[in-house]
């Protein structure tokens, strides 16, 4: 058995060094200079090329290098292949802090005062009154974020594909309840997994239900957002503003209109960043489980895609 690491778009020297140190008896291959792939049973993947998957006749486990698995083409994998993701408990706290900080900054009008400071204007105003916050996606991250907002005095709703029950959170589920969930929200947070059903869910049809001063925060995937319709909604005052940490193309192109839009805040995919030590520990555990024919940790439902 061998392990293939296929993580594109980043330098993998530290990752490979740690894996070799912790798995001295396991053959590790690095894409694309990896030779024959017939003996590969475990793949660590992120943005792997589509042509890879048909070259793995003995594949047993695919381990995502991130918390999401949307970059793994489930339809190209045999039914017997298991898929796992990274779960970092600290990510939940980091994500909750990121979102709460932007929600409070919006409520207290920090962005407005930065604009007025540049003009040397003294214009005190009361904080915004709205406290209705909605979280799209009630997985591990979404539940923690919803609870953190609730603990800080916000009236929180949550929406998910299937029904959930959470303390102090008004839960909605399914397509039929999406409009009711979004109705007159002051804050809308996206933490959904990216699936065919959620692709483009942040669109003008959804924005028409929220308050016209609503702050959108997208920390899930850039493909959840219809970028053109977001700008249209903000410019037509159907939506207040947006904080975006994820984008369809990363890094965000220098010519992209988000950079200069006065009501769009851009951050470089840093809302929650997993430490390499945490990632490697989970990867090693699953490689050892694969070798021993033991259950892997943090497996996902391949049929659902999350």
Automatic annotation (TrEMBL):
Keywords: NAD, Oxidoreductase
Molecular function terms, GO-annotated: NAD binding; oxidoreductase activity
Superkingdom, natural source: Bacteria
CDD domains in UniProt: GDH_like_2
Protein known as: D-isomer specific 2-hydroxyacid dehydrogenase NAD-binding domain-containing protein
Domain D-isomer specific 2-hydroxyacid dehydrogenase NAD-binding, first and last residues per copy: 102-271
């Amino acid at each position: 058995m061998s392990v293939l690491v296929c993580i594109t778009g980043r330098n993998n020297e530290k990752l490979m060094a740690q894996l070799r140190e912790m798995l001295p008896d396991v053959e590790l291959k690095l894409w694309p200079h990896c030779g024959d792939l017939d003996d590969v049973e475990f793949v660590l993947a992120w943005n792997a090329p589509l042509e890879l998957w048909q070259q793995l006749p003995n594949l047993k486990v695919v381990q995502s290098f991130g918390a999401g698995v949307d970059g793994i083409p489930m339809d190209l994998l045999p039914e017997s292949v298991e898929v796992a993701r990274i779960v970092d408990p600290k990510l939940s706290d980091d994500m909750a802090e990121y979102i709460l900080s932007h929600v409070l900054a919006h409520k207290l009008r920090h962005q407005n005062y930065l604009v007025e400071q540049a003009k040397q204007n003294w214009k005190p105003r009361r904080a915004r009154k709205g406290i209705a916050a909605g979280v799209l996606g009630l997985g591990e991250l979404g539940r923690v974020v919803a609870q953190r907002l609730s603990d800080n005095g916000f009236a929180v709703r949550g929406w998910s594909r299937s029904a959930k029950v959470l303390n102090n959170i008004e839960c909605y589920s399914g397509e039929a309840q999406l409009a009711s969930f979004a109705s007159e929200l002051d804050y809308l947070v996206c933490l959904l997994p990216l699936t065919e059903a959620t692709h483009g869910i942040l669109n003008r049809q959804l924005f028409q239900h929220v308050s016209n001063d609503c702050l959108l925060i997208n920390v899930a995937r850039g493909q959840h957002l219809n970028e053109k319709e977001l700008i249209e909604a903000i410019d037509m005052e159907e939506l207040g503003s947006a904080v975006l940490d994820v984008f369809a193309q990363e890094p965000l192109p220098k010519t992209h209109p988000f950079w200069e839009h006065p009501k769009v805040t851009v951050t470089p995919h840093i809302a929650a960043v997993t430490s390499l030590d945490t990632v490697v520990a989970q990867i090693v555990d699953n490689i050892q489980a694969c070798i021993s024919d033991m259950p892997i940790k943090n497996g996902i439902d391949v049929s659902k895609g999350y």
